[in-house]
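Fold this sequence, please.
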Amino acid sequence: MSGPSTYFAFGQTGTRSRGSFTAARNGDDVTITGTVTHGLYSPNNRSDEESFDFNPGQPGSFWGGVLESAGQAKPFGMRYSRDQDVTATLHRAPDGTLTLRSATWGPIR
């Protein structure tokens, strides 16, 4: 299981969440269901794979840097993502505005 500390361990690497959703309307109620995928991301790297490069602040950065300087280590690509289901219910007013009634996030897996 992962937690926020898993993502914090990667120094200045950020996270990105992307989702795939469907919406269904029943009268004035709209239900949106889908899956959100949370993963590592940096603006310099547009792929789903990040490079672990021993940045300061990352676990093992000191010894990784020492080994890298000695030619015994190098940055490596890694993929780390987790999925999470979500369901949201909204109310549609006569003027078309939507008001969130509830949102349920499932466990991260």
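The CA atoms of residues 67 and 73 lie 5 Å apart. The two ends are 7 Å apart (CA to CA).
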